[in-house]
Specification:
single chain; alpha/beta; Rossmann fold; Arc Repressor Mutant, subunit A; six-stranded parallel β-sheet; 13% strand; globular
Length: 215
């Protein structure tokens, strides 16, 4: 049985070799525990219900269902789990569906093991982690609902938002702005409310799409 202090991870990827490789890499981290792995969308939902992981590494291109289509099911059966999309696809349709489905983070498969480990830790801490390559793709999308006005963000909120887009942690943002981490968290909550987004990753994506910030 894994230690309660470890981050419990479910790997969902249709390639067995990739799953095994990910499991081996993650096992090297003392604060990680891989509780299950599968290449099936159907099994992913079943295993998420059974294991209640802290984080689900989700491939977007699964054989029985596309990854984004099971996001709602994963949220329903494992509401406490964060979802980090880890995919080699550059299919804009799939990426957009994952983003709109509310993934907590997004990384391409060609990232290094240290980058992946850091992304997992940040996503579990409710801090945004979206790879710069994905942000560049997001910035090319047309803005939806342009008739919907964005509530004005304060100067300090804009400073926090720009730093969120650099994948800075709360501590790093606090150090840059010479404020407390609690103050940063308060600004982040206000930003999420004004942009009507569920998490930091989605807030950064929406800000990029609405041209509030540039990448």
């Amino acid at each position: 049985m894994s230690s309660p202090s470890r981050i419990r991870i479910l790997i969902v990827d249709d390639h067995a070799v990739v799953r095994r490789g990910l499991a081996m890499v993650l096992a090297l981290q003392r604060d990680f525990s891989v509780v299950g792995e599968t290449g099936s969308a159907h099994e992913a939902v079943t295993m998420a219900l059974a294991f209640q992981p802290d984080l689900i590494l989700l491939d977007l291109a699964l054989p029985d269902r596309e990854g984004p289509s099971i996001l709602a099911d994963l949220r329903r059966v494992a509401p406490g789990a964060r979802v980090l999309a880890l995919s080699g696809t550059r299919d804009i349709r799939l990426i957009q569906a994952a983003v709109q489905g509310g993934v907590d983070g997004y990384m391409p498969k060609d990232v290094t093991p240290p980058e992946l480990a850091e992304a997992i830790r940040r996503v579990v801490r409710d801090e945004s982690y979206i790879h710069p390559d994905i942000l560049q793709l997001v910035s090319r999308w047309q803005v939806a609902d342009t008739h919907t006005a964005t509530p004005p963000l304060t100067k300090r909120e804009m400073e926090v938002l720009r730093l969120m887009a650099t994948m800075a942690t709360n501590r790093e943002i606090a150090e840059r702005l010479v404020v407390s981490e609690e103050t940063v968290r308060s600004h982040v909550k206000s930003i999420l409310r004004k942009l009507d987004q569920p998490n930091r990753t989605q807030a950064v994506i929406e800000a990029v799409r609405r041209r509030l910030i540039e990448v």
